[in-house]
Sequence to fold (196 residues):
Amino acid sequence: MPRLTEDPFVILPEEEVPLCAQDCARCELARQRARMIWGEGNPHARILLLLDNPGAREDREGQAFLCGTRETLQRGLREAGLALEAVYVTYLLKCRPIRAYDKPAARAACAPHLQLQIGEKGPQLLFGFGNVVAESLFPEREDATVKALRGRWLEAQGIPTGLTYHPLAVRRRPNLMSPFVEDLTMLADRWRELDS
Fold:
């Protein structure tokens, strides 16, 4: 895995989609996807970062590139002092939506994939980005928004869980960069405590 100090923004290696999920047709995204994206980064990392869905991962020739979400996420991690080797990035949805779809149905259909990942990887910390992830992780809470829940540790599926703004929200509203980095620093501090 490339070190953050060598190149500030890198394309993280993708983890191969497991055989049990490769032909998934549980939701309508199966009919519109080009491919599935299971996760990226260090597959043995003890920190699992959770975004809502993959973004544009391929150019016209099918080559991966570094999109704005990943660049902003990596910038925040760097400023918080958290190395890329410490994280694994995955998604609520394993396919990139390219047109309108039934969002609740797709999230429900993809939930077993995320449960499989969490069970297999056994992360020590879970960190979610954006309101969609907050609502998915804490469906029982009426205040399941980043604004209401950020800056503190909660528990999801028995795992210490934090939340922050989605990297795209941070790109669109630069005033969110400071709280974004604060939240990622909270994550880095908690990781250092667990890793010592």
User: Anything to note?
Assistant: The domain at 14-195 is CATH 3.40.470.10 (Uracil-DNA Glycosylase, subunit E).
